[in-house]
Design a protein that fits this description.
Chain lengths: ~120, ~120
DNA sequence: CTGGAACCTGTCACCGACGTCAGATGCGAG
DNA sequence: CTCGCATCTGACGTCGGTGACAGGTTCCAG
């Protein structure tokens, strides 16, 4: 699979795919002419990367966490594993915070709705 | 309350407070010498702004939503109200997405833990 | 009254993921 | 073989919320 195909399948720009590789997040083999070739796992991988980015992780953080995901061996995995749990906890806090914010917005909406109906009556 | 006090109380930099004002998100009266003065509601207001920023809203979006929050009158509130609900829904989707991501991370952690214990045994 | 801390405006720098352009090269269909 | 699309590398631009600095003014404690 070439980079254009991967981009089309994963819904990510070609630029981003090159960037992911530059950051050490996505591997590719090169053809004789130097063009990138991806295996069938790539789209899922890219989707996962997108997920982590959306969760607020930076490229560097993702890179630190990935060895834990890819090669669940030992040693160089130990701190990556800790990182992974740390990021999970951070995400958890984030979710709670966002939920509180949503509740606050709900409160505003409710107050506004009541106010509007009070005017209407 | 002067800008330094507000910054200290709300845990936001002086720079950011001036920026919020520049974006029309935070009002201040000026002293004779031109220095900003804030009333007692300001810290809560700033905290709320921080919440919205953390929820991923841009300054412009916050500005579009605020009239709905501040002056729950009618007319110029109508579309602000729609905006507010739109943003609430967007936030809701975001929360769901992050929750899915957290579940994915939990899956990885669990898999890794099992793998580690398999090695240990 | 005075000195120094706090404040003012204005401007430039930064970060990080990505857009975009340029110029060169690879690749496959006809 | 050739034409044209896809891909390559490298570089610069962008956006938004802030940091940081400069040069000047205001405020308050002593």
């Amino acid at each position: 699979m070439r980079i254009g195909d991967l981009a089309a399948r994963s819904g990510v720009s070609v630029r981003s795919l090159r960037y992911y590789e530059e950051q050490g997040l996505l591997a590719s083999t090169r053809s004789a002419g130097g063009q990138r070739t991806y295996d069938d796992d790539a789209p899922a991988r890219v989707e996962f990367l997108q997920r982590l980015y959306a969760a607020g992780l930076s490229s560097r953080t993702i890179a630190e966490v990935l060895p834990c995901v890819e090669t669940p061996s030992r040693e160089n995995t130990e701190d990556a594993f800790l990182r992974l749990r740390t990021e999970r906890d951070r995400l958890s806090e984030r979710i709670e915070d966002l939920t509180r914010t949503r509740d606050a917005l709900d409160g505003l909406i409710e107050a506004n709705r009541r106010h509007a109906s009070a005017i209407a009556s």
